[in-house]
Amino acid sequence: MEKWSLMTITVLLALTVRWTVSLGSYSGAGKPPMYGDYEAQRHWQEVTYNLPIRQWYFNTSDNNLLYWGLDYPPLTAYHSFVCAYIAKLINPDWIALHTSRGYESQPHKLFMRTTVFVADLLVYIPAVIVYCFSLKETSTKKKVSSALCILLYPGLILIDHGHFQYNSVSLGLALWGVLYLSYDWDLLGSAAFCLALNYKQMELYHSLPFFCYLLGKCFKKGLKGKGLVLLTKIAGTVVVSFAVCWLPFCTDMEQIMQVLRRLFPIDRGLFEDKVANIWCSLSVLIKIKNIISPQTQLKLSFALTFLSLLPTCIKLTVQPSLRGFKFALVSCALSFFLFSFQVHEKSILLVSIPVCLIINEIPFMATWFLLVSTFSMLPLLLKDGLLLAYAVTTLAFLSVCAASFSIFEKTSAEDLQLKPFSLSLKGYVSWFKSFPKIVRCLFLLSVTLMGVLSLMSAAVHPPQRLPDLFPLSVSVISCLHFLLFLVYFNVVILWDSKNSRSQRKIS
Amino acid sequence: EVSHPSTSTSEWTLDYPPFFAWFECALSHVAKYFDPKMLVIENLNYTSRATILFQRFSVIFTDILFVYAVRECCRCVNGKRAAKDVLEKPTFILAVLLLWNFGLLIVDHIHFQYNGFLFGLMLLSVARLCQKRYLEGALLFAVLLHFKHIYIYVAPAYGIYLLRSYCFTANNADGSLKWRSFSMLHVTLLGLIVCLVSALSLGPFIVLGQLPQVISRLFPFKRGLCHAYWAPNFWALYNAMDKALTIFGLKCNFLDPTKIPKASMTGGLVQEFQHTVLPGVTPLATLICTFISILPSVFCLWFKPQGPRGFLQCLVLCALSSFMFGWHVHEKAILLAILPLSLLSVQRAKDAGIYLLLTTIGHFSLFPLLFTPPELPIKILLMLLFTVYSFSSLNSLFR
């Protein structure tokens, strides 16, 4: 069948899945007094529409920052303002100042779900389609399969259209940034990424790879000539993008400081709730929060984060390649997720989307990672009542990936991009012959473990003495998986072009 | 709930044949593990999360029979060109067209009915007839009739085909009927099957003396010429014409306003209605119209049987004719024509063209079944999905 009809069917399928998940429950449904993220978004519409810009981020009598105060950068606020404007046309009660707190109704839910749906349709989905069409050295079938698998990734669908958030906007903008960079349109790419950054500050996880890649490009062009020109142009673009987004707040230093204080709540502590990163998992054994002071915690987490991503970034600056850039996005975001401060479980999406970008290069590992990332958010999804959606979308995703990429046949060292690494290890280890089988067994074991734990979390009551047993087990197991993936991705990057360049010379 | 047929405990009392009643009885035994309260007769309009979950899962579970039937049908189909790519194989396209049929999806899984496994039975009987396992095919169809009597729409096709190709075992050299090859054995076997199945289903009610009541529930002629939501058939046009003429007549003062009945035909209530300008339509009239319209296809099947393909064509035509001229037809009945036509569409380009036209329009006519705002994007997206797929895949098959 033709490319366009296949892609149309893929998009329609993706949209259908998104809308059917939308019919389910959302975060904080029917749970006064605080409700959840859904109420937060509605509240932001209320605040941005009714109050002047100067008051959006400040604690005033009209704007109680303790009740879901704005803690995303200005672009989110502008987006909420636009949604509020439309809401006002349909039903002003939805955003009436103070009186609309905790407003829940079927038409309102339809409206909110539509805003997410439209945002997804306008930003994220076109980015994915254009990205898949632009993949080089892949058949049409592989391009469409990649698009289908990326669009059916359960994590993003469940969080955006189920729990209720607008991650698809920031992730989509970052994806546009990657796309522009792959066509060597560096200025547009930088601008797109700055917009992404100004939508959600968590995109900072991706900032280092962007920075190192562009810097590496400038170095390659020679710092005395074209490179310097490029560097200044990019710097200019960044400054202009930021200025445009922050324009209303630039009148007053206090405004900027307050916004920054809301965006980076340093006094909140090392971690909150159960999240699949190192600090939460370590706290099972040692109560870190009690041993180390908050200042030291901050310094320790920053040190570890930067130490773990330093090798990749240096490699990217010295040898900037598009492939290295995509892998670096994954490993840097993963390092930040595992070691950084105040990480939410939803931040794993910042790692998942770059993994989606390399799904056609390492389908097996990518599918494995994406399954684990969805599993790591299980406690959150259970709280929102999205168990059925989770089960169905995850199973569908696994089947589609298994069918499109025949992942179970591609588990050799070469398929996992570990050939250069295995060549340098051949002298020391001799178990590489049964490597595919071992990897397959590990995968099946992992999937079975995740399945069993999902079932138990949903159906069984935890024992009295350990009420958090299941969420904690989910976090710890996911964390172990993520650590292994971190090692894997770093190995692939660091052992990469040295050998491939020499291989090309030989062939 | 199992209620006595003659008491009117609710507006939704049993109006399907006995086998379906036994099916619901079996379901109720499983239902009590989900939520016992849904089985209490007085609990009308009872919903709970467990009830909904159980109902939905029961439809999904019974669809297994449909999946099996589709597999059997795919085995009967052999495309002219063997394509290397799985996506372009006729069997794959047929499987998708049947399993992802938009009409079946929304009627069964959203609107809520159990058509999946019933169509599974029908497709299975068609597959058996294609594989020349006539007795099995006849048995399956007889059982199907006692599950849902709407399949009587296609009974003439089955009857004539079995008579012509099974009871008369051979043809003359020029393809015409060889009267001498009449096989008494085959006729008796067929008759035995039909009687046995009917006895099994209606027997208990005949013994209890309730047969007239059952018949009146199955064929509610008091329900009126058209269903609450008009099926897009000939009588809809007839009614529309009647209404138009009424308005025209009132405007030109040909008619007396006091003599015109006030009740509306398009309302949600099912009730009898009289035509004002055009002659009234009785059940007998619709039967005669239906009979006349199926005559050409039945004649073709009798005089020039072309094997299974001819049978399928006659089946589709019978379904369409009954849909067009039948009494109190539901719009869901269009699926009876669409699903069998899928089998023909992957084999010949001409049939594919007709199929695309019928299926797109037929599915669009099912839109009023889903009327709540949340379902609007779903029906549009699913419709687009199916239409785009059917057009592009059949196009690529017969390029």
TrEMBL record, chain A:
| Coiled coil stretches, renumbered | none
Question: Which molecular function GO terms apply here?
Answer: dolichyl pyrophosphate Man9GlcNAc2 alpha-1,3-glucosyltransferase activity
What protein am I looking at? Alpha-1,3-glucosyltransferase
> Which Gene Ontology terms of cellular component type are present?
endoplasmic reticulum membrane
Tell me the leader sequence span.
Answer: 1-24
Please name the InterPro entries in this protein's record.
Glyco_trans_ALG6/ALG8
Q: Which family does it belong to?
A: Belongs to the ALG6/ALG8 glucosyltransferase family.
Catalytic activity reads: an alpha-D-Man-(1->2)-alpha-D-Man-(1->2)-alpha-D-Man-(1->3)-[alpha-D-Man-(1->2)-alpha-D-Man-(1->3)-[alpha-D-Man-(1->2)-alpha-D-Man-(1->6)]-alpha-D-Man-(1->6)]-beta-D-Man-(1->4)-beta-D-GlcNAc-(1->4)-alpha-D-GlcNAc-diphospho-di-trans,poly-cis-dolichol + a di-trans,poly-cis-dolichyl beta-D-glucosyl phosphate = an alpha-D-Glc-(1->3)-alpha-D-Man-(1->2)-alpha-D-Man-(1->2)-alpha-D-Man-(1->3)-[alpha-D-Man-(1->2)-alpha-D-Man-(1->3)-[alpha-D-Man-(1->2)-alpha-D-Man-(1->6)]-alpha-D-Man-(1->6)]-beta-D-Man-(1->4)-beta-D-GlcNAc-(1->4)-alpha-D-GlcNAc-diphospho-di-trans,poly-cis-dolichol + a di-trans,poly-cis-dolichyl phosphate + H(+)
EC number, UniProt record? 2.4.1.-
Question: Where is it localised?
Answer: Endoplasmic reticulum membrane
Its UniProt pathway annotation is:
Protein modification; protein glycosylation
Q: What's the main place this protein lives?
A: endoplasmic reticulum
Topological relation to the membrane, as annotated:
Multi-pass membrane protein
- What keywords does the record list, in alphabetical order? Endoplasmic reticulum, Glycosyltransferase, Membrane, Signal, Transferase, Transmembrane, Transmembrane helix
* Function in brief: Dolichyl pyrophosphate Man9GlcNAc2 alpha-1,3-glucosyltransferase that operates in the biosynthetic pathway of dolichol-linked oligosaccharides, the glycan precursors employed in protein asparagine (N)-glycosylation. The assembly of dolichol-linked oligosaccharides begins on the cytosolic side of the endoplasmic reticulum membrane and finishes in its lumen. The sequential addition of sugars to dolichol pyrophosphate produces dolichol-linked oligosaccharides containing fourteen sugars, including two GlcNAcs, nine mannoses and three glucoses.
Say which enzyme class the record assigns: transferase
- Ranges annotated as spanning the membrane: 110-132, 144-161, 173-197, 227-249, 324-341, 348-375, 387-408, 441-460, 472-495
From TrEMBL, chain B:
What Enzyme Commission number(s) appear in the record? 2.4.1.-
* One GO MF term: dolichyl pyrophosphate Glc1Man9GlcNAc2 alpha-1,3-glucosyltransferase activity
Q: Which GO terms describe its cellular component?
A: endoplasmic reticulum membrane
Subcellular location(s) per record: Endoplasmic reticulum membrane
Q: Choose any GO biological process term that the UniProt entry carries and state it.
A: protein N-linked glycosylation
Q: What class of enzyme is it?
A: transferase
Q: Which domain of life is it from?
A: Eukaryota
Q: Where are the transmembrane segments?
A: 52-70, 91-107, 137-163, 183-208, 284-304, 310-329, 377-398
UniProt keyword annotations, A-Z = Endoplasmic reticulum, Glycosyltransferase, Membrane, Transferase, Transmembrane, Transmembrane helix
Per the record, the pathway is:
Protein modification; protein glycosylation
Family per record: Belongs to the ALG6/ALG8 glucosyltransferase family.
| PANTHER family attached to this UniProt entry | DOLICHYL GLYCOSYLTRANSFERASE (PTHR12413), DOLICHYL PYROPHOSPHATE GLC1MAN9GLCNAC2 ALPHA-1,3-GLUCOSYLTRANSFERASE-RELATED (PTHR12413:SF2)
Query: Under which name does UniProt file this protein?
Result: Alpha-1,3-glucosyltransferase
Task: Give the lineage.
Answer: Eukaryota, Metazoa, Chordata, Craniata, Vertebrata
